[in-house]
């Protein structure tokens, strides 16, 4: 498999951390890339503050901790439990891996395949493998899952950070550190963008099978309230055509009817894959995007690759992973881990990437 830029950047950071200062030409040799590629990588990492450049060489910044220690060669071991390693969580994992490498920590991963009943066993496996702290994105897909499958998290014997997950207010997980995308903000900026283009309140076409879907639905109600808008119709349940072909067709028919009857000229759809299929199905029914319907999708995983590139809300997935790993490493390396420091609930704001569909 061809190595991606993120993996190459991790190797580059590891090399510089081990040696302190390295010539860019030597990095090119060690990485097996051209000098041009090595310089481009160094420039990208230096622009993010991960490295310092000096006269043809690159140095490990003192602010990032001591050089001379290979990542995982003396730093903490952190475990990451994710429900999947593809689509949304691929970037979360990449961000956590990048931060761990930069901070001298070793990251180990387990994937639960969206089986919430197996989460506790996977976490136990991470602890058995040496994890001193845990980053947890449990496999919750329904509103009741945190109560049904979340009690074990509060009893963990190591520092824990929830990733893109929230416990119920006042519940046993409310006092844990967490790092999440602010999906309510993401929905609000999407609705504001459509209203700013002259549309009324958009339709919401959304799934129900993930915490993101639940947050998007709640954010939609909140956004309409803040902007004084009335929904053009009930939320349309979205479905994957592979898993529920009739459900998908029903959603397409409902959107088509709303456009045909003049009830809606805009829509917000969760997620990208459903949005791409919906646009194609609407075109077969004579509804053009953006001519008849302006459309924004939520997630921005593959939105730019659609026939008509889709405007999308992009949660800061990679940054969520980085921030969560940084917070956990800070907890593990603080001089006094028993200090009564306040827990943190960190909310990172999604961005809107405007493309042809609006």
Automatic annotation (TrEMBL):
<dbReference type="GO" id="GO:0000976">
    <property type="term" value="F:transcription cis-regulatory region binding"/>
</dbReference>
<keyword id="KW-0804">Transcription</keyword>
<dbReference type="GO" id="GO:0003700">
    <property type="term" value="F:DNA-binding transcription factor activity"/>
</dbReference>
<keyword id="KW-0805">Transcription regulation</keyword>
<dbReference type="InterPro" id="IPR018356">
    <property type="entry name" value="Tscrpt_reg_HTH_DeoR_CS"/>
</dbReference>
<dbReference type="InterPro" id="IPR036388">
    <property type="entry name" value="WH-like_DNA-bd_sf"/>
</dbReference>
<dbReference type="InterPro" id="IPR046335">
    <property type="entry name" value="LacI/GalR-like_sensor"/>
</dbReference>
<protein>
    <submittedName>
        <fullName>DeoR/GlpR family transcriptional regulator</fullName>
    </submittedName>
</protein>
<dbReference type="Pfam" id="PF13377">
    <property type="entry name" value="Peripla_BP_3"/>
</dbReference>
<keyword id="KW-0238">DNA-binding</keyword>
<dbReference type="InterPro" id="IPR001034">
    <property type="entry name" value="DeoR_HTH"/>
</dbReference>
<dbReference type="InterPro" id="IPR028082">
    <property type="entry name" value="Peripla_BP_I"/>
</dbReference>
<feature type="domain" description="HTH deoR-type">
    <location>
        <begin position="5"/>
        <end position="60"/>
    </location>
</feature>
<dbReference type="InterPro" id="IPR036390">
    <property type="entry name" value="WH_DNA-bd_sf"/>
</dbReference>
<dbReference type="Pfam" id="PF08220">
    <property type="entry name" value="HTH_DeoR"/>
</dbReference>
